[in-house]
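pinned: reference chain
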Amino acid sequence: MINDEGEQLGIMTPQKALAIAEEKELDLVEIAPQANPPVCRIMDYGKYRYEQQKKEKLLKKKQQTVSIKEVRYHPTTDTHDFDFKLRHARQFLLDGNKVKASVVFRGRQMAHQELGFELLKRLRAELEDLAIVEKEPNMEGRSMIAIFAPDKKKIEDLKKLASSDENDE
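pinned: its structure tokens
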């Protein structure tokens, strides 16, 4: 038996422990039922549950969810379109999201899969300063897919470099 201040009261009957808890207007909670004899504690159970829920909520708040953003290309994608989508991919990575880059082939373009591979290789080279390749380019149906994940260390270094450049000016 443990009282509300955390002091041990010793072994006693359940009736006596319940009487002490009722006298203090608190609850008698069984902490370790598998122990011999079982361990009980006098506490305000409602307050205890409230504290636990607050802790859980705080942990959920700190938890970061990572989502996958997709940028789609075609084997015939021109440089301007490539650069435009590259900027989006960079922003997604800086925001902490993964990027799924896919090259979609239509009809006879399937005969030239090397164009899609070259495109993803070029994208990989452009994103090398802030991402790691989580999944190498490979064909899935009519699409060639590669997945890039943000590299936290590289991103921090890049942000430090950018902030030091701003301070110099």
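why pinned: The radius of gyration is 30 Å. The mean pLDDT is 88.
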